[in-house]
Amino acid sequence: MVVGCPKCKVKLKIADEKIKPEGLKIKCPKCSTVLMVRKPAAPAPKPAAAPAPRPAPAAAPRPAAAPAQPSTIAPQAAPATTRAPEAPQPIEAQAKELNLKKVLVAHENAMVVEEVMSQLTEEGYLVLPVPNGVDTLVQTMKELPFMVLLDAALPKIDGFEIIKRLKEKEETKDIKTVIISSKIDEARQRKNPASMYGVNAYIDDEDLPGTLMNVMAAVISGQAPPEEEAPPEPPKPVAAPEPPKPAPKLAAVPEPPKPAPKPKAAAGPVATQGPEKARRLARTVLSDIDLYDPEKVLESIRNNKFEAVFAEELREGLKHYQMRIPKEVRAQGNFFQESLDAFLAKKKEQLGI
Predict the structure, then answer these.
(1) Which range among 87-91, 119-123, 257-261 shows the weakest confidence by mean pLDDT?
(2) N or C, which end of the chain has less CB nearby within 10 Å?
């Protein structure tokens, strides 16, 4: 006999002798639907349901229509195929929130980090110290602090490039950023620090102990950081009058023997600064030049004219460097030129030169 699958409509041929009185279970080879097949005589009582007189079932023509009955064979329950797949539930990417107790401090000077950590820990913040630009990006993405305090002249990746990258990412664009740097040209740095790649505030490292918490409070509240009035321009130096010529000595008076000079006491913290401090200050000078006109910097490097275009800025920076770095440290090497060469090499790499 021939049986039709009610699901995929495929026709199956089954030998009559294989069909037992209670029926035969088969599995559709195409759609795997399980069917129960019975002999055609099984559905014979169906004509009795007709309103015809009772003798009607004995009529001979009726059984002839029995072979057409396979279309009425109902499939047995097939749990494996009739179970409807669960509707996929929408998975919403939950944006991680910034941790309002975490502050990341990125600075290579251990003394600066220690000063910042001391103040913030007392205020209940969890401080994450990192020494360079690469670690700053990695830890910021991992920990999601609500604020980052970073040095403008971080090694590997400078502070302004880090801020630029953070502002480009959806998950870190709302992190508050505060730049810590050295004073070079105070009037020029106060020009517009808040517009530098979205920096929220700017602190000179020399003013850090007294202004850190006030600046942070202003940034958290959404207000502009308190700005000190720009100091008045120092009066132009007046040429010192020539010293009066000494009066001629009337007679040479023998002077008492001078005591042997005492060894000079070691200078303050400035004298103890080493090559690393010198390099960091030089990088700060170059970062500030790059900060205020990055397009002009790239164009001058592309034309191999950086030192000529920014000659005045480099002179100012070198003068500041020589004032801050003691002579004995500068005698150990030309750290300013070393940092300048590294800065130009990095920019040329970015430009593919």
Answers:
(1) 87-91
(2) C
3-state SS class at 212: helix
How far apart are the C-alpha atoms of 180 and 41, rounded to whole Å? 95
Phi, psi values for residue 103, rounded to 5°: -130, 125
- Give me the pLDDT at residue 90, please: 44
Which of residues 78 and 325 earns the better pLDDT score? Answer: 325
Query: Would you place residue 309 in the very low, low, confident or very high pLDDT band (cuts 50, 70, 90)?
Result: very high
Alpha helices (H) along the chain: 61-64, 79-82, 110-122, 133-143, 159-168, 186-189, 208-221, 275-292, 294-302, 306-309, 311-324, 327-330, 335-351
pTM confidence score: 0.46
For residue 201, count other CB atoms closer than 10 A to its CB. Answer: 24
| Pair 104, 177: CB distance under 8 Å | no
Closest CA to 282 of 181, 143, 212: 181
Provide the Cα torsion 108, 114, 120, 125; round to 10°: 70
Residue 80 phi, psi dihedral angles, 5° rounding: -70, -25
Query: d(Cα 159, Cα 165) in Å, to the nearest integer?
Result: 10
